[in-house]
Amino acid sequence: EMEEARWLPPEIEEGNIEYKYRLTDLSDDQFNHRVTQMHWRLNEGGDEAIYKIGYRDNGQPIGISELELQSSLKALQRMADSNNCNMTVRKYLRGECGITAEVLIERKAHSKLLPENIHIAVVGAFGTGKSSLIGVLLSGQLDNGRGLARTQVVRHQHEILSGRTSSVSRHKLYFNSTGKVLNEGYEGNITVQTHLMSRCRSLSDLDILTEAKKTVTLVDLAGHEKYFKTTVYGLVSHAPQYTLLCLPASSSSPLRMTTEHLGIAFALNVPIVLVITKSEVASAYSLAKTVDYIKRILLSCKRQPVLIDSKEDIDTLMNGYGDNSGVQNTVHVPLFVTSSVSGRGMDLLQHLLFRLPSTEQGQEETKKHTEVAVLATYYPESNEDYMESDIMRRGRCGRLIVEGAVRHGTGVSPGDEMYFGPNLRGEFERVCVQSVHINRVPVDRATVGQSITANIVPVALSSGYLSTPLESSSSYSLGSVSTTTSRDGAQCCFQENDSEASDSSTPGDTYNTLASTTRQTKQGQFLLSICDPPPTSFMEFDADILILNHPNQIHLNYQPVVHIGVVRQTARLISIRKESAPQVCEDRDANSSPSVPCLGTGDRACCRFRFLYYPEYFDIGSAIVLREGRTRGIGKIIERYV
Fold first, then answer.
1. Secondary structure element (H or E) that encloses residue 335, with its range
2. Could you give the CA distance from residue 589 to residue 556 in angstroms, rounded to a whole number?
């Protein structure tokens, strides 16, 4: 015996719920129109849509005959197949004059070979036009000279008002196999004559992921000295494969922040691409002096600048790179002269971004241990209306959404069990990956170099979330759904369970709950594949350190901020060991004996550090950057200690 259908609120254009009285005797045009309509509802609902068959647009449950219902469901199945979706009939209800049905449409995970992904850090001093350059590349719309292009990429209102980028933001540029940009707004490449690109059709996220051959992720970093610590963290944590260094055309004298960025990029062994911006406001004499100045700097660093004037120059340069293993060791640095206002050199820079090879290919073969560096986390939100929904019980919305990048290994797939951590105690917890998204599209596997968002729950809860069948829900609630869009674009719904929703303890005090680790998120966490023995976090480490700059000397108990990948924490120097000096222990007074070694600018030594607050996870051989005031040091991890 079927339950009686109730009146629903009138249908609205927004959202993922669609009312249909019946879907019978559809012409080809009508069918194609409804396929497009389903595509819209799927995008609105984060790859899920709910169809109410037998309902009028005003929400009246009239119902249709059983024969008409079966014909309508067959048509709906064809529409779902056209959108690469699965269809599930959730329940039948008794309408006023017939039968109604509630149908769930879910987009299938994308299984096509994913496009190659390259991360490029965009750095430069304040006022060099980094954000405007990214805005023009993304939209195809040239700047008006007053910051129009940069408004499309900044994240905060105060950044628009002050003109200073203060945070780290990531923006994706998509290329097809011929080098054409697939981002919205492009009909062709940027040229000097094109001041406003004519709008082309807007491709969906799935269309872009299907058609794209290469994805270039541009990481916009702050240029002002006030936010230098944020810039250093962005350079180290995102592990860029290339660095795009911007320099204004009118700058014929050294900019301190430019040399800082250049030094860190060289220290991290990241290839450089130099871009001279704002050429429209510089005279020919000033531009020539700037080019000469930057060439002298590169030659002093044993790098050979190559001024790019045509696409043939780019092709010649790329052919000189050879295989991917030689990219990191190249001495050639491409140099572009561009303008975000006139469009000068923008098409050449765009062509270079398309031709740049990836430096991460093959890492899945060299390291079987999968590692996902977590860059951001998103917490659940309480929503009583959504708590009783079928989607919640089926585990479609989990405890925590993590955003990160697959550093190495064999990849990540939905259903994988992994370790997540370390938390504030240095512990790892086993979690289950419920779903993986790339560019807001669910995928069945993410490989090395891909930026992803993943929905994870503790293993102890994952089986309970997925064990309840659809048919067990007799009272499905269509209340408002709380959603959050992450920086990678995955639209996610959040909900805590009853025990956690009533828990008034702070994240640092919830070690006794099943989801304790997911509530103790911090910087420097990872998703690691299951291994034996389990991963361990470390409080101390030895590193081979080279001091790039220090106004005086470094002694024991020196406490800089240490950057090791996504790890950022203050550490104390407890030992210094030079080649000509014995090891110094931490319990010795640094000022008690003149034989105690110290470090100055240009010195290299093996140093042991101890984290001040909590243990961290990192690999031997990882690059390390020391930062404290104007002090800079770089090196590599050579040993770890619990």
1. strand 332-337
2. 8
Token duo for residue 618: 């990192």
Question: To which residue do tokens 């007074």 refer?
Answer: 589
CB 410 within 8 A of CB 368: yes
Asked if residue 433 lies in contact with residue 418, where contact means CB atoms within 8 angstroms, the answer is yes
Where helices occur in 333-401 by DSSP H, the ranges are 346-355, 363-366, 384-387, 390-393
Using CB atoms within 10 Å of the CB of residue 480, give its burial: 0 to 12 exposed, 13 to 18 middle, 19+ buried.
exposed
Q: Is 234 helix (H, G, I), strand (E, B) or coil?
A: helix
More confident residue, 244 or 583: 244
Residue-level length of the chain: 642
Tell me whether residue 284 is exposed, middle or buried, using C-beta atoms within 10 angstroms of its C-beta: 0 to 12, 13 to 18, 19 or more. Answer: exposed
The SS3 of residue 483 is strand
**Amino acid present at 158:** H
Q: Report how far residue 295's alpha carbon sits from residue 316's, in angstroms, rounded to the nearest whole number.
A: 20
Asked whether 73 and 29 are in contact (CB, 8 A), the reply is: no
Which of 24, 19, 27, 86 is CA-nearest to residue 57? 19
CB–CB of 484/368 below 8 Å?
no
Confidence band of 473 (pLDDT split at 50, 70, 90): very low
What order of strands is seen across the sheet that includes strand 214-220?
A: 169-175, 214-220, 116-124, 242-248, 272-277, 332-337, 304-307
Taking Cα atoms as reference points, which of 494, 532, 487 lies closest to residue 515? 494
Helix (H, G, I), strand (E, B) or coil at 218: strand
Q: How far apart are CA 549 and CA 2, in angstroms?
A: 77
**pLDDT confidence of residue 636:** 94
Amino acid (1-letter code) at residue 300: S
Helix (H, G, I), strand (E, B) or coil at 274: strand
The string of pLDDT tens digits covering residues 407-432 is 988 889 988 999 999 999 999 999 99
Three-state DSSP state, 603: coil
For residues 444 and 109, is the Cβ–Cβ distance under 8 A?
yes
Q: What ranges make up the beta strands (E) of 234-370? A: 242-248, 272-277, 304-307, 332-337
Phi/psi of residue 547, nearest 5 degrees: -85, 115
- Reduced to 3 states, what is the DSSP secondary structure of residue 422? coil
- My answer on whether omega of the bond before 533 falls inside 30° of 0, hence cis, is yes
pTM: 0.74
Give yes or no for a contact between 617 and 537, defined as CB atoms under 8 angstroms apart.
yes
Least confident span in 12-26, 143-157, 498-512: 498-512
Q: How many CA atoms lie within 13 A of 339 on its CB side?
A: 19
Q: How far is CA 391 from CA 165, 377, 412, 458, 527, in A?
A: 39, 21, 23, 18, 25
Q: Is residue 278 packed enough to be buried (19+ CB in 10 Å), middle (13-18) or exposed (0-12)?
A: buried
CA distance 101 to 263: 64
Count H helices and E strands in the chain, helices first: 16, 27
Which tokens is 580 given? 């000509």
Evaluate if residue 590 carries a pLDDT over 50.
no
The SS3 of residue 338 is coil
Total Cβ atoms within 10 A of residue 83: 18
Sign for the CA dihedral angle at 362, 367, 368, 371 comes to negative
Q: Which residues pair with 116 in a beta bridge?
A: 214
Q: Give the CA-trace dihedral at 465, 470, 475, 480, to 10 degrees.
A: 60
Q: Give strand ranges (E) for 97-209.
A: 99-107, 116-124, 169-175
SS3 category, 17: strand
Residues 111 and 444: beta-carbon distance below 8 Å: yes
DSSP state of 195: S
